[in-house]
Design brief:
The protein has 867 residues and is an alpha/beta fold. It contains 27 helices and 29 strands. The chain binds ligand NA7. The site of ligand NA7 has 21 residues, from α5.
């Protein structure tokens, strides 16, 4: 039983919403011994399952998984009748849970919370309801779901229609009988796709108004999967544990098969298996790269379109029903039962709004640009103001009276999707910035509720009364959420995930796409690091350990994990020969980099012998000479060759439109300092002298290099300046070695665990230069004379031991009057920016490098970035 309010109208916690999340929240808050009041504007429990009663409404996650796991006895006592349960069955389930735990007594139904204001003095929330009730509470928890505020009809004349109007999201309890009626359905999202086949069974005429064709696969509904039931029977706890630590909230082995490299038979086999299985996460896991790589995505998309064409008999309708304007999965795909087949019925018609848009709703029906339609009933299946809509529907004001609506005017901002700065003790369940709608909601809900109650318990035990995120932690999390989305195809779609379905709503990727497992780990890490990024206050004072929980780019973190799993020996424990062999073997497995127009190999005569070079010429126009970039590979003066940096050179060439001449200089320990630097200078002189012959524009020459290649590139610049030529238009230094001082902060922060370690850097130096030579400006160019050097672009990566010497070089160059562009590779390591085709988040940094290169050459033609 709940603890009664000790002071009338004053509760420890107020929860808004009595769906899956609100009910479990109430259950757990009671366990903490807190007094709780739950409000819901509905007449009963159920949340989304109370309102969305349209014909055919079902969950799209198998019900074996779309259920609470916190109560093992409940799991034994409830048996789902189908693979995808109907709305009435899910509602029955929620009622069953409510009654089983006696939750109803603390819920006030048919009551809407209208405002919530933080009272600074009392450190409590003042809650007002539409029944003009006022309450106070310590903790205010929004359990209002992600899809609970219907999008208002944004169609002209919507209120004019004289017949019956239905909203899938607010379906009448008594149901609707369309027998013998002319019915219009507007919208082909999940609600439309589920209801259309059933409405078609009753209606005498059904017209479907489709703005965007949607991907849908057959649900193959029926009894719950025998295999899954067996797994649950055999090891329920193990199964639930795997779900909690899975990517989507359902145990599933992520494939590592790439669509782009799989054979045609493997592609077909995997797709057909997913199609036959009829599960969302299955069809989203045909290929590992389908959410990232357009080419891979298109393989799955085209196979689905093929299926649509094979089902729908009218080729025109089949074409219109085949989605083409978004990548598969970037709008939520649907599971259907006979959806596409419905369009073969003689009384069902599809109107493609892309061809004939709706002009207005009229008294009789709908006018499109070409036709007037008369109907007896209109069904709006037009979706929701997703994720943020329910949260800003309440007039919430935090510190200094700032409202949530104001704070989120240009997009939501949260820490972990759970809290937002300036709104103490205000929790959101499945808020923006949490996996929520991209996951099995029940698993995410349980995680959220348990995190929040764990937090409240910890607060109480430590004597704190308020908790709130810091601005730094919150902006760090927002950045991480957007970083995770940016490497996927998701932001390209006009989806409700992006807020694109609601006119005027800011475009912002709302859910966290990094995975349920990654999210859970982040939440756990926040706690284990003393509630990192939260400020807690109480009578005893304030505690705040400020910081950002995830700073590394998500794909860089993934590569780091993969490399760690390979268990390779540290390079600094190998001989130079073995280290070279290891690097060469690693290079075999990576993608080749973008196509360029032409690649030719040649030889330069250097001071110590022949130096091989490779020339990359961009594809396409303009014909004729191009600016030239002499490039030097990385590898600590010991490793690397023309092949090692080949993908990066292709990328630089394709992006910048310049000719790239990659030169292989002599390596240590065979040729120690200053051989590499002298070779670099000789190469620059040679390329300058042979510019026309190479296809370059004489006098338009720059240098570039990564790591130790950046070192020899900038040394070559210094030597060229001192020698009075060649003239260099600029230098690009990617994570360069510019000093031999290994005591800078970035060495302390990043000297271990990020591939280039302090130990490896020492190994490189030991192979290359005697200690006495390491202060020489040809080894440590930061110590050289800097005025008169060409315009410079320096890339400094956050997790690179060399970061701070790169920054120091940028500052020193600036102080010497050199024009400098410092490109911060946010969330990157020493190597990740160069991993073309592997680390997608490195592409914007390389785009910036290419832009810097083009700016060195004022007459260079602009380039299309490589795909
Ligand atoms: P969705 O998925 O947002 O679908 C809404 C549909 O309504 C979609 O096809 C929209 O087209 C269409 N729509 C919205 N506004 C209009 C106007 N003004 N004119 C024509 N068509 C319009 O909502 P659902 O309720 O179907 O599903 C929501 C989620 O619930 C679902 O993803 C599952 O997670 C469960 P658009 O694509 O915007 O062009």
């Amino acid at each position: 039983m709940n603890k009664p309010a000790s002071v009338p109208g004053q509760f420890d916690a107020v929860v808004v919403g009595a769906g899956f999340s609100g009910l479990y929240m109430l259950y757990r808050l009671r366990q903490l011994g807190l007094s709780v009041k739950v409000f819901d504007s509905a007449g009963d429990v159920g949340g989304t399952w109370y309102w969305n009663r349209y014909p055919g409404a079902r969950c799209d996650i198998p019900t074996t998984d779309y259920a609470y796991s916190f109560d093992p006895d409940l799991e034994q006592e409830w048996t789902w009748s189908e693979k995808y349960a109907t709305q009435p069955e899910i509602l029955d389930y929620l009622r069953f849970v409510t009654d089983r735990h006696g939750l109803r007594s603390d819920i006030e139904f048919s009551t809407t919370v209208t405002s919530a204001r933080w009272d600074e003095q009392e450190e409590r929330w003042r809650i007002t309801t539409d029944a003009r009730k006022e309450l106070r509470c310590r903790y205010y928890i929004m359990a209002t779901g992600c899809l609970s505020v219907p999008k208002s009809p944004d169609i002209d004349g919507a209120s004019r229609f004289a017949g019956r109007v239905y909203f899938t999201s607010r379906w009448p309890h008594e149901g609707a009988d369309f027998t013998g009626q002319r019915v219009a359905v507007i919208g082909t999202g999940s609600s439309g796709i589920q209801s259309i086949p059933l409405i078609a069974r009753q209606a005498s005429q059904l017209t479907v108004f489709q703005r965007t064709a949607n991907f849908s696969i057959p649900a193959h509904n029926g009894p719950a999967s025998a295999e899954r039931l067996k797994q649950l029977d055999e090891d329920r706890e193990g199964y639930r544990h795997d779900a909690r630590w899975s990517r989507g909230g359902i145990p599933l082995e992520p494939t590592d098969i790439l669509g782009v490299t799989a054979s045609e038979s493997v592609r077909r086999e995997r797709f057909e298996a997913a199609w036959a299985q009829g599960e969302l996460f299955g069809i989203l896991n045909v290929f590992a790269d389908q959410g990232l790589n357009p080419a891979s995505n298109d393989i799955v998309a085209e196979m689905i379109r093929e299926k649509i064409r094979s089902i729908v008999t009218d080729p025109g309708a089949a074409e219109a029903l085949s989605p083409k304007d978004h990548y598969f999965g970037t709008k939520r795909p649907c599971l259907d039962t006979g959806y596409f087949e419905t369009f073969n019925l003689p009384h069902v018609r599809l109107v493609d709004l892309r061809k004939q848009p709706i002009v207005s709703v009229t008294e009789e029906g709908i006018d499109t640009a070409d036709e007037s339609f008369a109907f007896d009933a209109l069904v709006y299946a037009t979706g929701f103001d997703a994720m943020t809509g329910p949260l800003v529907a309440v007039d919430v004001a935090g510190r200094d009276g700032v409202s949530l609506r104001e704070k989120w005017a240009s997009g939501p901002s949260t820490y972990l999707g759970l809290m937002t700065a300036g709104f103490p003790n205000f929790f959101m369940l499945t808020g923006p910035g949490s996996p929520s709608v991209l996951s099995n909601m029940t698993v995410s809900i349980e995680q959220h509720v348990e995190w929040v109650t764990g937090c409240l318990k910890d607060l109480r035990e430590a004597g704190f009364e308020t908790i709130e995120p810091t601005a730094l932690a919150e902006s760090g999390w927002n950045q991480h959420v957007q970083d995770c989305a940016a490497i996927t195809l998701h932001p390209t779609a006009n989806s409700w995930y992006m807020g694109a379905n609601v006119p005027g709503k800011p475009r912002f990727f709302l859910p966290y796409i990094g995975g349920v497992n990654a999210y859970r780990q982040a939440c756990d890490d926040v706690v284990s690091q003393g509630y990192l990024g939260f400020r807690m206050t109480g009578p005893g004072g304030t505690r705040c350990r400020d910081g950002v929980i995830r700073r590394m780019q998500p794909d860089v973190a993934m590569v780091m994990e993969l490399v760690a799993a390979m268990g390779l020996p540290p390079v600094d424990t190998l001989s130079a020969a073995d280290a070279r062999a290891l690097m060469a073997a690693m290079a075999q497995t990576r993608p080749p980099g973008p196509e360029v127009g032409e690649v030719t190999d040649g030889v330069i005569t250097g001071p110590g012998g022949d130096l091989p070079y490779r020339l990359y010429r961009p594809a396409g126009p303009p014909e004729g000479p191009r600016p030239l970039v002499v490039y030097f590979h990385g590898g600590g003066w010991v490793l690397g060759d023309l092949d090692s940096d080949d993908p990066l050179c292709r990328d630089l060439c394709a992006r910048s439109g310049a000719l790239v001449v990659s030169v292989n200089y002599r390596h240590a320990p065979e040729a120690r300092f200053p051989a590499a630097a002298l070779d670099a200078f000789a190469a620059v002189q040679w390329v300058d002298a042979h510019a026309a012959e190479l296809g370059g524009i004489p006098g338009q020459l720059a240098v570039a290099g990564w790591s130790a290649g950046g070192n020899v590139a900038t040394v070559a610049c210094q030597l060229a300046r001192d020698a009075g030529g060649p003239y260099l238009a600029g230098q690009v230094l990617i994570c360069p070695v510019v000093d031999s001082d290994m005591t800078r902060l970035s060495y302390q922060e990043n000297g271990e665990g990020y591939i280039l370690t302090t130990a490896l850097m020492r190994w490189f130096w030991d192979h290359y230069a005697d200690p006495a030579d390491r202060g020489d400006r040809r080894a440590a160019p930061l110590r050289g004379n800097l005025p008169g050097l060409p315009p410079t672009c320096i890339v400094a990566a956050d997790f690179d031991p060399l970061r701070d010497e790169g920054v120091a070089y940028a500052r020193a160059l600036e102080a010497a009057g050199v024009s400098v562009r410092l490109a911060r590779a946010r969330g990157h390591t020493h190597t990740s920016v160069t991993m073309v085709g592997v680390v997608i988040s490195g592409a914007p940094v390389r785009a910036e490098i290419a832009e810097a290169l083009r700016n060195f050459f004022p007459n260079a033609a602009p380039q299309e970035p490589p795909s």
